[in-house]
Amino acid sequence: MQELTHWIDGKHVKGTSGRFTDVYNPATGEVQAKVPLATVEEMNDAVARAAEAQVKWGDTNPQRRARVMMKFGALINEHMDELAELVSREHGKTLPDGRGDVQRGLEVVEVCMGGPSLLKGEFTDAGGPGIDLYSMRQPLGVVAGITPFNFPAMIPLWKMAPALTCGNAMILKPSERCPSTALRLAELLQEAGLPDGVLQVVNGDKEAVDAILDNETIAGVGFVGSTPIAQYIYGRAASNGKRAQCFGGAKNHMIIMPDADMDKAADALVGAGFGAAGERCMAISVAVPVGQKTADTLIEKLLPRIEKLKVGPYTAGEDVDYGPVITQQAKQRILGLIDSGVEQGANLVVDGRDFSLQGYENGYFVGPSLFDNVTPDMDIYKEEIFGPVLSQVRTENYEDALKLTMDNPYGNGTAIFTADGDTARDFAHRVNVGMVGINFPIPVPLSYHTFGGWKKSAFGDLNQYGPDAFRFYTKTKTVTARWFSGIKEGGEFNFKAME
Hints:
Layout: E1 2-3, E2 6-8, E3 11-13, E4 20-25, E5 30-36, H1 40-59, H2 62-78, H3 80-91, H4 95-112, H5 115-118, E6 122-128, E7 131-139, E8 142-146, H6 154-165, E9 169-173, H7 180-191, E10 199-201, H8 206-214, E11 218-224, H9 227-239, E12 243-247, E13 252-256, H10 262-274, E14 284-289, H11 292-307, H12 328-343, E15 347-350, E16 369-372, H13 379-382, E17 389-392, H14 398-407, E18 410-411, E19 413-417, H15 421-430, E20 435-438, E21 454-455, E22 458-459, H16 466-472, E23 474-482
Helix pairs in contact: 1-8, 2-4, 2-7, 3-4, 3-7, 4-6, 10-11
């Protein structure tokens, strides 16, 4: 069995704690590797080494740092298929989805190639008599990224690329369920010219996370995961004086108006609801048709599409629609929530609970499920299922659909499908959700904008990637300067008398 490592000072380093956790193949249920879990001492040592390396890296001019990102981007492209297979092997997502995971992270690296333009300060000439003012953006020092299992490439790249471009050193703590992609990215960064120690990949569990939050050297923490953990990390980091951006769970609604193109809406819902087995924080898990006729038509359109979905391992080919969920515990939780939906009175139109795949009976596969007549008091509505389950909540009019979305405690993403520009504009303006799609089901912004939710989906005041990332990973220093009259008066050719 493969024994994975940490990545410290530019090389693979075995763990010394004696503690490991298993890394599974979700398609087979078999253990394929074990990963070390760091102690507080191992984490603190990695941080101290990163702090030493950061000094020179922070003094490197921004253009040279951007050249490392240029080379890194080229290497990611060169190794795209290898990285996608690493993602798929440990997460379970299909190969096309694995490539998409890597690609969306690469796009942030590409923006960071232009980092010098985003690191420029400001200047005010003659702010007072003979006084100039200027501000500069400087790195925080050592920062940390704590990333989830569901995007083993994308989210580490969202964290590390801006942080490193800004001149910081980074401690990356990837999910212990999917650690191999982060380790491979660290190798590629070294090949791209990143100095040893500037990126440290330290594997671990809660002990490692708490060591990050309590380490006095670490100045900023970025996290993506569930809402309870996001709130915990944000609170502990902030109480220790750290800058923090923590992104949590979601319950994303898609409103379907009576004038929407129903075929396009159904296609969008199937892809957004069941892609990656629903293990996306931007997955659409609630369909909200307006009017009974719209709801009936939508169910009719969804049924044949869902029945045609191909579920299987990534090795089964490019036409697999989605793979297994991440663990046996995740599978049992999803099945339990489907049971609760039935018990609480929802209509289970498509039942994926008994799905079985020949030859992969021990894998963590869950068939697609579709509920109708879901109400907001049901557990399948209130909880983030994070699985291949789509719930339909019927509403009578647009205002009710909007209110349903706005009353939900989460505010990550939402969408509306309509042919009416006025309705779409009103929705985008009024809805209290951070990312909005208009006839677009998963509105993840392009990498030169910025990603972030509202309400219980995010803690902290700055978003991921784009301009906000450069604000988060730098601190502003402002200088007020006055120069007294000197050599411009002209040269002195005689000794001046003593005053």
